[in-house]
Amino acid sequence: MTARATSDLSRIVETRALDAEAIAALNHQIHGQLLATSPNLGTANFTTIGSADLRCLFDQYDRLFFDGAIGANLDGAALNFRVSKRMTSAGGKTVRFVTRGRPDHTRYEISVSATLLFQCFNGDDHRPIFVSGVSCSNRLEALQRIVEHELVHVIEGMLWERSNCSATRFQSIASRFFGHRGNTHALITPREHAAVRFGIQPGVRVRFVLDGVRRVGFVNRVTRQASVLVVDARGSRFSDGQRYTTYYVPVEQLETIETDQPER
Ligand SMILES: [Zn+2]
Prior knowledge:
Layout: H1 3-15, H2 20-37, H3 51-66, H4 69-72, E1 79-84, E2 92-99, E3 102-113, H5 114-119, E4 129-131, E5 134-136, H6 139-160, H7 168-178, E6 185-186, H8 190-198, E7 205-210, E8 213-222, E9 226-237, E10 243-249, E11 255-256
Parallel strand pairs: 1-3
Antiparallel strand pairs: 2-3, 4-5, 4-6, 7-8, 7-11, 8-9, 9-10
Bound molecules: zinc ion (ZN).
């Protein structure tokens, strides 16, 4: 990275402020461009997404919002993109990797949660979806808001090494460039979905059939699936003194049991 590229980025980031109309127009352009060129997406409520789509979004944001100054600060492969199926509470994440004594080896990785995106906009959302304080009406809009947020993390990392999305500087950048009004996503997590749609949350008694065997237990945790503890003499001992085996069961396959109802 050159000092010139850094000063260009720093000048743009510290001085530029876009109005709502300009932001909407650029977002619309990026939205259309990605749908037109991506081999994966097809529609705004896409059902597949690859890391190439994230790179394509990044390239367009960099070009249209930052005059290419972010890319000019990178040395080739120093920014990676990942679509994560394992992230079940955060919509996106940016990690900055540094090598001691080798600032030219710094690299960044932006991950986006496919699990959260695919959890939302299925036509059965029980509430409106906001990402970064902006109302989103489809998956691509939510994805754009997530990528914008992570971009600000990358920019802060490049210019100031540290990045904090609950701090004023971050929020000023996110608001001036992208119109963000908040620093958290409110996608529906699998946990919230399970609780609202199916009444499945920690502590709830449930029954389920697995491999043809009916079992009764209680929900311990909900991530992508629910982990259910079933009393089992051969299981591991837990803090209540009982032995349990843990089963991982898709939430849809659990049936809640009213506690005052006899078990069948
Ligand atoms: Zn953040």
